[in-house]
Amino acid sequence: MNPLVFFGQQPVFTHEEFKQYALSQGTKNENTLREMLAYHLKRKNILRIRRGLFASIPLPSRDSAEFYPIDPYLIAGRISSDAVLAYHTAFDFHGISYSLSHQITFMSQQQIRPFTFQQTKFICLSFPKALIKENNTDFETITVDREGLNIKVTSLERTLVDTLDRPEHAGGWEEIWRSAEHIPILNFDKVIEYAILLNNATTIAKLGFFLEQHKEQFKIDENMLALLQAKKPSSIHYLERTKRESGKLISQWNLVVPNHIIERAWEEPSNDLI
After folding, report:
1. What is the per-residue pLDDT across 213-241, written as a single tens digit (0 to 9) for each?
2. 19 and 98 belong to one structural domain
3. What total of structural domains would you count in the chain?
């Protein structure tokens, strides 16, 4: 068994993946596995990211292994078998986020505590309950190759709805609106299908309001809006339930929306002197 072969093929790997490789090579003793990992950590062939997760270090960088930059998308995408990059991180991955972030957000059914590595914070969130109930957590996820390994990320269609559903994980409303300006095209059949799958009337109302606000950009027709209006809340809801900000009632969606969002206050020209 030559662990260096495995390390060369696995830029980021879990303890379990290393164990399975060792088993395939005839090594079954747990103590031997621990000793191997400890040896290669000491030799700086690998670097511990967190408990049970490691990165392989190329030979030229081993003298300063702790400073070798590890792809944060790869860390989040390989931390568990069901990990999916999501929310603002998915916007960033797709190249449409308005602002940079030093936080990586992903979904998993495993309970993974927040941790920081190389000045990036990693946050694990649970999948929406409706997806877990339907055993459909992979709905509208894309598998992509990253340094020879597969990771999953939510599609733009799902990401848009997810960020409207939980805007606090997308950088807030201004970030969502400004990021959306960079979206070239969307499959609205998938957008609406996913919003309905979440089975949340408030989220459907948010999506309907958002689409009306971006009617020209996305060429939204009335049939799309009618599908959503049929599932809007039966009573008045707030754009953010926890904040209950005052604003304007958008009656066609039974949604109270703060004025600064309706007016896109962030677009107002600055009065500061240059």
Report:
1. 999 999 998 999 999 999 999 999 998 77
2. no
3. 2
Residue ending a domain, among 67, 87, 107, is 67
Beta bridge partners of 249: 256
Q: Tokens in use for 110? A: 């495993």
3-state secondary structure of 160: helix
Say if CB 146 and CB 76 are below 8 A apart.
no
**What tokens does 43 get?**
């030799």
**Considering Cα of 215, then 216, then 217, then 223, what sign does the dihedral take?**
positive
Convert the pLDDT of each residue in 56-114 to its tens digit.
Answer: 999 888 888 888 999 999 999 999 999 999 999 999 999 999 998 899 999 999 999 99
Looking at the domain assignment, is residue 272 inside a domain?
no
Same domain, residue pair 27 and 89: no
Residues 234 and 105 in one domain: yes
* Nearby residues of 49 by Cβ (< 8 Å), 6 or more positions away: 12, 55, 70, 75, 117
49 & 111 share domain: no
The answer to whether residues 178 and 265 touch, using CB atoms and an 8 Å cutoff, is no
| Distance separating alpha carbons of residues 84 and 193, to the nearest angstrom | 19
| Orientation of helix 188-198 relative to helix 156-165, angle to 10° | 40
Q: Are residues 145 and 180 in the same domain?
A: yes
| pTM for the predicted model, two decimal places | 0.92
Which residue range forms the structural domain that includes residue 176? Answer: 72-266
Residues 162 and 221 occupy one common structural domain: yes
Q: Using one digit for the tens of pLDDT, what is the confidence trace for 118-172?
A: 999 999 999 999 999 999 999 999 999 999 999 999 999 999 999 999 999 999 9
18, 34, 67: which is the final residue of a domain?
67
**Three-state secondary structure call for residue 115:** strand
Which of 42, 66, 54 has its CA nearest to residue 10? Answer: 54
- DSSP assignment of 209-233 equals HHHHHTHHHHT--HHHHHHHHTTS-
